[in-house]
Amino acid sequence: MVRLKINGSVQELDIPSDTPLLWALRDTLGLVGTKYGCGITQCGACTVHVDGQAVRACQTYVGDLVDAEITTIEGLSGPVADAVKTAWIAADVAQCGYCQPGQVMQAVALLAREPAPDDDAITTAMNGNLCRCGTYDRIRAAIHAAAGALGTAAADTAPAEKG
Amino acid sequence: MVHRLDRPTPGTATAGLRPSRRDLLRVTAGVGAGLTLALMLPGGAAPAQDVAAAKDAGDAPFAPNAFIRVTPDNTVTVVIKHLEMGQGVFTGLATLVAEEMDAAWDQIRPEHAPADATRYNNLFWGPVQGTGGSTSLANAFEQMRRAGAVARAMLVHTASEAWGVEAAAVTVEAGVLRHAGSGREASFGAMADAAGRLTPPDPQTVDLKAPDRFRLIGQTALPRPDTAEKTDGRAVYAIDVRLKGMLTALVRRPPRFGATLRTLDAEAARAMPGVRAVVRLPNGVAVVAESFWQAQKAREALKIAWDDSAAVTTGSEAMLEDYESLAQTPGTVFRNDGDALAALTEPQARVVEARYTVPFLAHAPMEPLSAVARLTDSGIEVWAGSQTQTFDVLNIAEAAGLRPDQVTLHTVFAGGSFGRRASVGSDYLREVAGIARGLTNQGIEAPVKLIWTREDDIRGGFYRPMALHAVTGALDATGRPVAWRHRVVCQSIMAGTPFESVFVKDGIDGTSVEGVSDLAYAVPNVMGDLHSPTSPVPVLWWRSVGHSHTAFAVESFVDELAHAAGADPLILRMDLLRDQPRLLRVLALAAEKAGWGLPMEPGRGHGVAVHKSFNSYVAHVAEVTATDGGFTVDRLVCAVDCGVPVNPDIIRAQIAGGSAFGLSAALRSRLTLDDKGVVEQSNFHDYEVLRLAAMPEVEVHIVPSTEPPTGVGEPGVPTVAPAVANAVFAATGTRLRRLPLTLG
């Protein structure tokens, strides 16, 4: 039995501890928004958050996740997530869309850590997430747009907080 | 009938992908005896039945034709006959319907059509439902508009009757019917029930809008209706389909193409946790377990000896050496204008020779091949990102031992395809149907999902063929090209398949030579010939098919001719294309936007390429910078003429995406076989594709046009590699003739 905390709720799974998180999510829990693309951390389609960090679920084993906070695309929420999803939709980033949940997870982790990334920071953070449809230019633009929206929101709320 | 001003010439892939009705009937008659029946019977759940069922449920929709359902909740469902695989066909076809209906864009809900060649056929392919050859928007342009116009006319009629006013006085805007005189108005949904009782008019009798009245077609700000669900993980691909009690299957296939199973010892695999069955298939052995992870581990435990007597046992380097030898000998002639051989031996002729080679390439869509099947006493249901429903149904039926009318094929989103899910023999769908049958034979009644791992995908064949182009040209004393002799060595995609008689004419597979056979340059003496070597390596169409390599050879070679003549490569092209206005226009536009001819720093260079494919016209200018031992692509400027730009934002996305796909092939990807015939690459660490860091700035400029719309899925690919190679030459003086392009 493996105990996992996923999207805020504790789940008891009857699977071996060497099961990759990806397949626990997809096959055992039915959370199929996390995608299989390569199985060897080369494509980023399976990106989830573990304690707020973007990790590849395909090479993360459930036995190593005791006490960890796991977030999948289905449970992704908060101001940064909302800004990223809004920017993604406004830019119509997705083509086939298969890699996009992983791209969104990666972008949210980036912006949570670095609210106004420059192009180099975006390249470094996003280079592990493949897209065969070639939506890279829109991914970059959407991250800038999300950062801009978050910056504006922060500027709007800052005086209120001070006051 | 759809108006097509620009019919393809015989010998092009586009023509090849549009075989005549008679051809297809003849060919498919050889696929299986059930075919004629399949074409007569609806292949899946018909909307008419859906409508009846919905009416029983008290939810009376208005379904004026097979493409539209309006429900009282004011939703307009548009039934999309083509596969949405990222190219934007859900948006494109829905735009056409919404335009003529005058619907509000946010009330439109696209959904995939059932498999039904009678109602949902590709009008360019005869009685065949399928998506490919960049034909979707072009074949459906008038059909979808007429469907929308019929619905509009019936809603207007309904409103005029209800309000007792002249139909001509009823206006429609953004999904609202209005009568100005009385101030009455109603939504589509409010009129749906009454409109559903009318008999639809003949679609050919309804008026279509003049282009100057378009409100949605050509509008840049139209959002894609499938974006939100693809952003937050709700979109369902075949690999995401979950059915109660579903098992997961992985297939072990031979390491060498053409090998067959000799001995199997599955004892250890069967004893592993979760394993429910081992099923022998014509091309391998399936392990079926309760989950992917169990199936994957058990697959590794299979002990198999393969029979390699019919297998490929040579490497791709040796194959290429054979191609080089073949290129020394005459092939089958596919084009012969004037007398190229004589012109090449004129005493004043300045002869230029070059050879270009391209490797095998895997499609590598982000969603590996996957499908779900449920076999019951009444038939088989399959869920797949099917690109060719009509043939897939026949192949599923055959593999499951059923009649085609016992197959229900549900089309779901494909996580990319690029041609892979249009495999001629439906390879992966035959597998899943065979596994479902095998399970039933073993007394196991459960739906099953087949998943190809990424390694299976890279090593599983159906590649873009490796090709060699040997080109010889001659310039006259003034530097004008007067002869072009083009020899292609390329494995035929269609030879040996049931489609051979349609696609291969007089020994020429049109998909091997498209882009050369219709060479647009005004050279008086042109001769092309083809060698089609055979091998057990399965090959297939890959985004832009033959153009993916012919444009590299043609557009590199014309550049070499220009440099030999001391001419500007852009000016020479413009001169040779003076009678090709649409090519000329995209060429000039891309060059202007890129700043062609402006001084550049040392070590930087521009390269240009222009090409027509799938009836669209594309030019790319690449800007590269030489680096220490290599180069970077900094910018791509592209111009495209695809007729009426229905969805400009999707055109930009497709051309930018096609540019990225072309750059993967230009810079990174290569599929090779070692000297024992085993594929050397296995996953994205060694079968490299473009990553974000290497994505240059891409600009897309769309030529305004009132011509009928043509495709954009494929035409963005062919010009990328030659534009980059030409730019590398401009920057470094080194001519690269082999893909992927590497310096040093």
TrEMBL record, chain A:
Which ranges carry the 2Fe-2S ferredoxin-type domain?
Answer: 1-76
Q: What GO molecular function annotations does the UniProt record carry, in alphabetical order?
A: 2 iron, 2 sulfur cluster binding; isoquinoline 1-oxidoreductase activity; metal ion binding
* Keyword Hydrolase carried by entry: no
Give the InterPro entries listed for this entry.
2Fe-2S-bd, 2Fe-2S-bd_dom_sf, 2Fe-2S_ferredoxin-like_sf, 2Fe-2S_ferredoxin-type, Beta-grasp_dom_sf, Diverse_Oxidoreductases
Q: What EC numbers are recorded for this enzyme?
A: 1.3.99.16
Q: Which CDD domains match?
A: fer2
Q: Which Gene3D superfamilies match?
A: 3.10.20.30, [2Fe-2S]-binding domain
What is the recorded name of this protein? Isoquinoline 1-oxidoreductase alpha subunit
Species of the source: Roseospira goensis
UniProtKB/TrEMBL annotation, chain B:
Residues covered by the Aldehyde oxidase/xanthine dehydrogenase a/b hammerhead domain: 232-310
Q: Does the keyword Oxidoreductase apply?
A: yes
Q: What is its EC number?
A: 1.3.99.16
Q: What SUPFAM superfamilies does the database record attribute to this sequence? A: Molybdenum cofactor-binding domain (SSF56003)
Annotated GO molecular function terms are: isoquinoline 1-oxidoreductase activity
- Report keywords, A-Z: Oxidoreductase
Under the heading Pfam families, the entry gives: MoCoBD_1, MoCoBD_2
Which PANTHER family does its entry note? ALDEHYDE DEHYDROGENASE
> What protein name applies here?
Isoquinoline 1-oxidoreductase beta subunit
Its taxonomic path starts at:
Bacteria, Pseudomonadati, Pseudomonadota, Alphaproteobacteria, Rhodospirillales
